[in-house]
Amino acid sequence: MSEDPKKGIQDLKKLNLWRRYQSTLSFILFVAAKRLFPKKKLRIEHSMSKGFYCTLGKKVSQAQIKKIEREILRIIDNDFPIRSKMYTKKNAIKLFRKIKLKDKVTLLKNIRKQRIIVCSLLDYHDMYMMHPLESTGKVHLFYLRKFSPGFVLVFPMWQDYRKLPEYVPQPRLARIFNEYEGWAQILGISDVGQLNQAIKGGNGPEIVKISEALHEKKIVYIADRIVKEYKKIILIAGPSSAGKTTFTKRLAIQLLVNGMIPRIISADNYFLPHSKTPRDEFGRLDFESINAVDIALLNDHLLKIIQGKKVQMPKFNFHTGRRNKGEKLVLPADGVILLEGIHCLNEKFTYEIPKSIKFKIYISALTQLNIDNHNRISTTDNRMLRRISRDTYFRGYKIRGVLQHWSSVRGGEEKNIYPHQEEADEMFNSALMYEPAILKKFCLPIIKRVKKKQPEYEEAKRLCDFLELFYELHERDVPSNSILREFIGGSSFVY
339-358 pLDDT, tens per residue? Predict the structure, then answer.
């Protein structure tokens, strides 16, 4: 990891300020919706289209959305103060039971934390993982867009608070979230309180088994589709710590079951020598740029492989910065190529390969588990915890370095992966409903090594506070072929 520590720390501060911006807007949205439609339940579901996808009851009309938008603007313009007060857990439960926020009551009953900070705006009360800003007038930029049956709350990106991003609908991403919501209904779990309640009741091992079975069912479906459509090159892409490697290996097994012979190729082996690698704005080697890959050679090899020719594969040596000779590859008549790399969804990456034989898969850990109705669990936080576990236990990195580097990882994903995710033929959600309850044991002791005087402490404390919400599950119940094993060890696959 060659991230500039100072920049990494500055970016962590920007990210946490951005999270407070999100919490402030979420609180204002809750108050606006409650004032206008007191009988409807607001739920802030997940990130989508550079904002949060929200529901208000079963469906919301365009006219209702406009009313909410105007009310939010009124609250912002009045610059109302947002106050906070410490409650005992018993008194917080009484408060939220009185104002009929049952999700808060369930959460508080099923966490060990005894002191609760409650936020107040006008006559409304709520809780947020990241404390809102001091007043409503500090969040000027937002807009709402209908996305049936709910709407999207769009706000600035963390890199620049001075402008709003363009709204781009993401119907394919929405479908994968809907699929995962269906999985949540099968499990009977949609938020942390319910998960903890199930673990307390001894149902943790069953949740693990069902979650893993749902993963396997989806992988089987994707493999069957590849065989049915007779695709020869499977392109697999996704952000860091999505579980691409384990997914690819499990997909290969299912293709074998279907009578196809898979050959796995890593796009990383086609990196250009360091002397030809482009550099970023800070003069560092930019391995996340598409121009860091020898695309011409990659396409030449892929064409030869699908024509049945024997190809001498490259093997990139990250220590010397050069390509060495790898194994020779011949694809049999019933063979299929699985190509994994961050640029695989970008059509420029495999420009010479006919679209008719390509099948693109996007994989990410798109958690649908919420803390409660107004506090979502960030998909990037889920992946960050995976990365902390893997990189500190198995790759020799220090926790402070992992935290510093994360903003750089996110920047690369936002530039190279997310713009192409809607081009995927299939999306696979690698998130497991139960995984924070497993990762807690691995990550919490590591994160607690960050001291108060160190600049990464604010981020470390945020992650600790999040993990402390969960009851622990023992990793013995996690099967050896689970995607989670890629990050906690004990996998039956060789990496």
Answer: 999 999 999 999 999 999 99
Mean pLDDT on 444-462: 96
- Percentage of the chain modeled with pLDDT above 90: 83
Residue type, 128: Y
**What's the pLDDT tens digit per position in 398-411?**
999 999 988 888 88
Whole-number CA gyration radius for the chain: 23
- Tell me, yes or no, whether 236 and 349 share the same domain: yes
Considering the domain architecture, whether residues 292 and 233 belong to the same structural domain is answered as: yes
DSSP 48: E
3 state DSSP class of 395: coil
| DSSP structure string for 107-151 | HHHTS---EEEEEEETTEEE--SSPPPSBGGG----EEEEETTEE
What digits encode the pLDDT tens for the residues 98-118?
999 999 999 999 999 999 999
Please state, in angstroms and rounded to a whole number, the distance separating the CA atoms of residues 85 and 281. Answer: 44
Domain range for 326:
204-365
> Which domain CATH number covers 30?
3.30.980.10
Q: What is the rounded distance in angstroms from the CA atom of residue 11 to the CA atom of residue 407?
A: 6
The reply to whether 75 and 140 lie within a common domain is yes
Is 131 in contact with 84 (CB distance < 8 Å)?
yes
CATH number for the domain harbouring residue 263: 3.40.50.300
Please say whether the dihedral angle defined by the alpha carbons of residues 276, 269, 335 and 421, taken in this order, is positive or negative: negative
Query: Residue 299, CB half-sphere, CA atoms under 13 Å: how many?
Result: 12
State pTM to two decimals: 0.90
Do 118 and 228 share a domain, yes or no?
Answer: no
Q: Is the separation of the CB atoms in 343 and 238 below 8 Å? A: no
Q: Is the pLDDT of residue 323 over 50?
A: yes
Whether the ω angle into residue 149 lies within 30 degrees of 0, i.e. cis, is: yes
Q: Which amino acid is at 318?
A: F
Residue finishing a domain among 318, 344, 365 = 365
